[in-house]
């Protein structure tokens, strides 16, 4: 057992496989769609100085006769918390703002048009503790909270659409939500998308804090493409991705917070399957931190909680949720994907995509045309009835 | 570029990665659920003599108090055609019967309870030619065709449930179907499951031969578990897997015929995503053959067709569809999977699975409970209307 967290699948393959085999392995694992995107040297230097990984990829499409290319650059940011979890709440939030500010500056240098942060990015992912205090104090108004105002400034300054997933305080209904605020590059709040599916995984029950969202499957028309946000646990629900796609999403973001022991083998599968099945791009973002011995990131505080808590699994009380393994990536409708960001470091992934690829793949593979959705609508309406009789044949 | 088809991702990783890294890479790629299953030495010898790969894996579940373990062994067979595609039809069918007969004998030695063959296993996958003659002559009655009678004998002899995907001739309705015949271990035909989604991929349009199936999402209750069959292109449709699962399927088989250039990066994703999303086991089976230079299998005839045909892609007329890359595998509800069989050799994959794992995973991850299906039934009914208005927010 290494004393460090394993840094990345991709690095391991590149370090050890002979070139001819590496080419085949990468083709099978990642497809052939993602090429390297050259990024400005100033951005590369700044990322190095500011201690985060910077990677660029591009997905091209065939040149059409009647539509010009529709190239959009998206940015995915994964990061540690910045201050310890017992620092004053406002200081923690402000420190996270500063960190994002310095990363997004590099995103701007890379020409990013739409950027998405990780789930509840302004706070530690403290829902495993089941404590209300101080964690609900991180909740803010989606429309005019500090964090939204901070993002509005950045959006205007960098001419960038920003997806800012926060813990939302909804004063109007005296309730909390897990919400992505979508801010236009004009600086206006375009709207919000609430988490549709709330985890009950073992004893990890986020409905202690917020319930299933009521914003449906809203799609946001931006200057850079039609986007939607499927927050975290919603990636396990193929119908959730599907309905965003039926509403016209060309890129679906999946800001997440998930740990290794629980979900890591599922991580490369679900968002990518959604890109294939729905002829769209998907962007999966996971935070980093709290490795057993997280060497590469020892300079960051970890998501360690002062009060111990149990997890309903027979194990002793403990102080953290597990290792958030990063590995953020972009998947394309042709089944290809980018390599993942590091499992341990803060990072910015820049992906340029020609959105024309979606319709080209749809015209080729025809999943929507062959989907028989009217029949499924009937079958599903029947299946949810309490007296549903499954169609089972016996001898 | 090698003169041979690349044999397997797994072999390449095992040959080159240092042990500690290999462990992590395998954990991330395959999860940790599949252990090695010891197979009888007689079976291993027979597989070697008969020139096919034999692999065994097991998926365990936690021992429960109120249910005994429900261990089932499934077998997946992938194979080349046996005679050239211009041999007399009946000789081709009979040769394929003999080949399957000798592989299934080994499956019986391994204690397999349920076995599934590849899509339209009695014939070359000739639908790319768009010729009716002689390919429609391979069609047989699902109820009392030669192949079904052959399978009934095997089922009784080996006490095995057999899933036999064939080209079906439905005399009653003067039509053809792409159909899996499910034969009970008693030897009785339990029923049939027709391909629900028919590919229109580029110019590859199987509806030249058969249309969308009308058997819905039938599940078969066998002595060894509740099973369903999602044929080939249906794996791209998450709703198809989902509806089999809602009808109670514990294992969903996906007999396929698909080639590298088209689908290989999607192959490890889709069936596995279905196992995760639906808390069930899935078994993906693909044929082998027709590699550019298919060294490992040069002793088998390839799926080479006498008359050249074009593929609507601007390329020159050619004589084969591409490389069927095998790589059959089993995926489990915990996100883990077996390694794939070879990309080039005939093979039998034996997987023992404790079906109790499905409910255990469902109780842990709760995707069905958190699925909000009643709301999706409404949304979908609305979305299929010709005057559907997508929910798009603009500035």
From TrEMBL, chains A, B:
Residues in CN hydrolase domain copies: 72-355
Keyword terms of this UniProt record: Cytoplasm, Hydrolase, Phosphoprotein
Enzyme Commission code(s) on record: 3.5.1.6
Pathway per the UniProt entry: Amino-acid biosynthesis; beta-alanine biosynthesis
Compartments (UniProt record): Cytoplasm
Annotated coiled-coil segments of the chain: none
Domain of life per record: Eukaryota
InterPro entries given in the database record: Aliph_Amidase/BUP (IPR050345), C-N_Hydrolase (IPR003010), C-N_Hydrolase_sf (IPR036526)
GO biological process assignments: beta-alanine biosynthetic process via 3-ureidopropionate
Keyword Hydrolase carried by entry: yes
Main location: cytoplasm
UniProt GO cellular component terms: cytoplasm
Keyword Plastid set for record: no
Quaternary assembly: Homodimer, homotetramer, homooctamer; can also form higher homooligomers.
Annotated function: Catalyzes a late step in pyrimidine degradation. Converts N-carbamoyl-beta-alanine (3-ureidopropanoate) into beta-alanine, ammonia and carbon dioxide. Likewise, converts N-carbamoyl-beta-aminoisobutyrate (3-ureidoisobutyrate) into beta-aminoisobutyrate, ammonia and carbon dioxide.
Family membership noted in the UniProt record: Belongs to the carbon-nitrogen hydrolase superfamily. BUP family.
Protein name, as recorded: Beta-ureidopropionase
Source species: Takifugu flavidus
